Amino acid sequence: MPQKIIALLHPGEMGAALGACLVGCGHRVLWASEGRSAASLTRAAAAGIEDAGSLARAVDAADLVLSVCPPHGALDLAEEVAACGFDGLYLDANAIAPDTTREVGAIITAAKARFVDGGIIGPPPVKAGVTRLYLCGAQAKEVAELFAGSHTDASVLAGPIGAASALKVCYAAWNKGSIALLATIRTLAQIEGVDAALLAEWAVSQPDLARRSESITTQSRKAWRWIAEMDEIAASFEAADLPPGFHQAAGEIYRCLDTFKDAAATPSMEAITRSIGRGVRK
Amino acid sequence: MPQKIIALLHPGEMGAALGACLVGCGHRVLWASEGRSAASLTRAAAAGIEDAGSLARAVDAADLVLSVCPPHGALDLAEEVAACGFDGLYLDANAIAPDTTREVGAIITAAKARFVDGGIIGPPPVKAGVTRLYLCGAQAKEVAELFAGSHTDASVLAGPIGAASALKVCYAAWNKGSIALLATIRTLAQIEGVDAALLAEWAVSQPDLARRSESITTQSRKAWRWIAEMDEIAASFEAADLPPGFHQAAGEIYRCLDTFKDAAATPSMEAITRSIGRGVRK
């Protein structure tokens, strides 16, 4: 298939790995260094992604804009791209609620561009077989083909715009919801003086839980961007007349941990429970 | 050790099994059939528990009162026993918040009886090695010894009154919280039309989750008594300045399922998600 030009906004860890996949498939991938961090610069260079300088120049040159950003940035980014007069294909692959996706889609189609909804499940695709990109919308197949043969398993999901986002929401609702729940339980156990007894009981009856409850230590550096994702998940539940409380609570927990964003080392479990115990109801 | 007389209030499934353990240890176990169901009568008879007729007569005869009831009944039961002028040993083994336990303890000690806090983890002890009874308070050892050699592994937990309840809360917060979360996610997936896609994705990356998400079908007959337990867990989190939302939401889910209390057969997953989807925000 002919080489495409793709504006990748922005090369975070996930974006850079997706960009590298597209470069590997023979496409030209551009980014916009203006206002971005040194870490993005390093990641983009390593992934073979070319710097177009500004967002406007990247978008002007692009057949496809690929939006991969923290969930709280998805709507603003769509507005920025629409304001550039973009009329190509726009893929939103962010962890947002189906309703938010439809809002993004409305912004994009009002600007005369075409819109594809994407949901990424798995880690950044730096090796094969671990990352799925689900796509829906009329041009889903066209987008999936761009990734053919790469480390990103892109596939078309039946359903209207919003389905790929809904699938991602359901998946993350468990993964990130259960991590927060376990971390909160460990904090309560600490506060009530029964943490050692809980670990001893789990060792007998739920042998995997001690380890799982401590996965928060390695995940805590991502807590800052999971806050808005929990808001999006809670909104998804609420829009379906289901209780949003699980993920509102999870969002509160991740808000207590956002200071671990640039932590030099993985914090201890004690540091996590101390932050949660101190931080939620300020 | 000398045989004790124990008033068991009341022989539900858990209570009857604990009663059978005590009978097996040589103790006399009494219950009060007044106002109880035919099912209780059958269970008590099968467990070798003697009918004292009224609660007052059972309590008058008893060295120990063992309170095992749905969480929403724990305080009222303590009031009833205190009103009988009971001055023996009172064990509350219910799934209640540490603060509720301390309230029960205050009622009991105001009546000049002595109080032990208990937390049961595991199913009714009808076989060995699966049910633990954690006990705390000054007479915890005395109570633990009553179960020596039975199917109930009774042990003393270090800590003040409330610690055994806290341990039970932390344990159930995961088990019952995670069942509710998974059931809600399956409901959202149904509503959004991505349930088959979610199951396919889980089959690849979380192979145990499909099965776990359907454990709600066999558990749904207990949902009616988990509603108040979720309230108690939420209150435990709130008292520790932690977010109560996980279990407030779980309580909403179990409230949708209380109609399965006397279900003749295990409902299908579809019946569960339909009830949740219809029932939460009435």
Structure description:
Two copies of one chain form a homodimer. With 282 residues, the first copy, chain A, is α/β, with parallel strands linked by helices. Chain A has two domains: 5-159, NAD(P)-binding Rossmann-like Domain (Rossmann fold), CATH 3.40.50.720; 166-279, N-(1-d-carboxylethyl)-l-norvaline Dehydrogenase, domain 2. Chain A is 53% helix and 13% strand. Chain A has 13 helices and eight strands. Chain A has helices spanning 13-24, 38-47, 55-61, 74-83, 98-110, 140-146, 163-191, 195-205, 209-213, 215-219, 223-239, 245-256, 269-279, and strands at residues 5-9, 28-31, 50-51, 64-67, 89-92, 114-121, 131-136, 152-156. In chain A, helix 5 links the parallel strand 5 (89-92) and strand 6. In chain A, helix 1 packs parallel to helix 2 (38-47). The longest helix of chain A has 29 residues, at 163-191. The first copy, chain A, is globular and about 60 Å long. The mean pLDDT of chain A is 96. Chains A and B meet through helix 7, helix 8 and helix 12 of A and helix 7, helix 8 and helix 12 of B.
Give the integer mean of the pLDDT values of chain A: 96
Oligomeric organization of the protein chains:
homodimer
- Order of strands across the main sheet of chain A: 3-2-1-4-5-6-7-8
Work out the largest interface and the residue count of each chain.
A-B, 55 and 55 residues
Strand count of chain A: 8
CATH topology value of the largest domain in chain A:
Rossmann fold
The level 1 CATH classification of the largest domain in chain A is: Alpha Beta
Characterize the main sheet of chain A: 8 strands, mixed
Q: Report the helical percentage of chain A.
A: 40-55%
Overall CATH architecture of the largest domain in chain A:
3-Layer(aba) Sandwich
Number of domains of chain A: 2
Q: Please write the string of helix (H) and strand (E) elements of chain A.
A: EHEHEHEHEHEEHEHHHHHHH
